[in-house]
Amino acid sequence: MTAPVRVMIANAKGGCGKTTLATNVASHFAHGGELTAMIDYDPQGSSMDWLAARDVHLPTITGVAAYQKHAPQTSTKSWALRVPANTSRVVIDTPAGLAGNVLSDLIQQSDMLLIPVIPSAIDIRAATGFIRDVLLSRSYRMNPKPIAVIANRVRKNTLIYGKLEKFLNSLQIPFITALRDTQFYVRASEHGLGIVDFDQKDKKDIAEWQPLIEWIDQTIHELRQSQQASQ
């Protein structure tokens, strides 16, 4: 049986929109017919709250509250045994302050890493340190994984976004897209929805997400090719 593709959403800085990114990626997978699970390591449990608000008629997404005390925080086996056996996609939502062995263990569990960054001087500095920690982590050095950065909650015609864009473009990591600052995501989150769940989709939001979806799909394709070649 083919192992599920595991997408990790991470940034040591809190408040950068990790859960918004995670829930929308999970919605994309589920709408594409993939049996999808979300693993929530964040003690705030925002992804689990989102799933609890999700309508039963929407494409199913299984949730695992890995932050609970009875769930070993970084045991691959623990969450693997708690999702359906034929799960094909796993989205991992992580807590703020992620570092050290916990960061390294979660990277080892994942097939790719998405890093959201919001436009503020503090967040830019924090992202610099976090990306350094990822690249220097033992698991990444032993087995590098695809990484992409996403500008989140942006207002493009602002000075601080210009600084963020310059910073992200300076990285030797793909800067995939910029997601606008809108209450649409707040309303969607309250009802357990992703942007793909709406009957009337906002063309601007769909256009902003398309580069990220294409990057994820291409990365999965390359991963499967690599797995087949090694068999």
Question: Can you lay out the helices and strands and say which pair or pack?
Answer:
Layout lengths: L4 E5 L8 H14 L4 E5 L5 H7 L8 E5 L10 H5 L8 E5 L6 H10 L2 E6 L3 H16 L1 H5 L4 E8 L4 H12 L4 E6 L2 H8 L12 H28 L1
Parallel strand pairs: 1-4, 1-5, 2-3, 2-4, 5-6, 6-7
Strand arrangement in the largest pleated sheet: 3-2-4-1-5-6-7
Q: CATH superfamily, please?
A: P-loop containing nucleotide triphosphate hydrolases
Number of domains: 1
Q: Which residue ranges are poorly predicted, with pLDDT under 50 across at least 5 consecutive positions?
A: none
| Rg | 17 Å
Please identify the top-level CATH class.
Alpha Beta
Specify the biggest β-sheet. Answer: 7 strands, parallel
Mean pLDDT: 90
CA-CA gap between termini: 13 Å
Tally of DSSP helical segments: 9
Percent of residues in helices comes to 40-55%
Structural write-up:
This protein is of the alpha/beta class and 231 residues long. It has one domain: P-loop containing nucleotide triphosphate hydrolases (Rossmann fold, 3-Layer(aba) Sandwich). It has nine helices and seven strands; from the N terminus they run E-H-E-H-E-H-E-H-E-H-H-E-H-E-H-H. The protein has a seven-stranded parallel β-sheet, sandwiched between helices. Helix 7 links the parallel strand 6 and strand 7. It is globular. The model has no long low-confidence stretch (mean pLDDT 90).
